[in-house]
Amino acid sequence: MAEDGPKQPQLSMPLVLDGHLTQQLRLRVESLKQRGEKRQDGEKLLRPAEFVYHLNFTQQQKLQFERWDVVLDKPGKVTITGTSQNWTPDLTNLMTRQLLEPAAIFWRKEDSEVMDWNEADALEFGERLSELAKVRKVMYFLITFGEGLEPANLKASVVFNQL
Fold this sequence. Notes:
Elements: E1 10-14, E2 16-17, H1 19-35, E3 50-56, E4 63-72, E5 76-82, E6 104-108, E7 115-117, H2 119-132, E8 138-146, E9 154-162
Antiparallel strand pairs: 1-9, 2-3, 3-8, 4-9, 5-6, 5-8, 6-7
């Protein structure tokens, strides 16, 4: 079977756990608790099952979203939410208005090796990443782990075609 022409080179870009930034946001929660203060209006406080990841756009020009490559090594669910935030953690708190919609949700059922996802939303989110790659060097994500999962159970990357 003949192909439709040469295939575009692909670039797989991993989502990397940002342990430092996650810790900074956890310290913010602890600090508020210790002082008995409330969060700022519109501030999103990091919950225990949430972690910050980032994606470095090393080749930020001319990327076209191809697919998500997400693997969970055991059953459970992860929700990947993008942020429009450029972080300086000592100066900037996570704000709910900077969480992007739609989120991409991936899950693996008990007794299954197959990954499922909310396909339409995940594809829309991925296509937005292509646009953001034109203006960003780093993109941040809030990943929520459910059903007993933690960062060690996740391997996630975004695959782009290089145009």
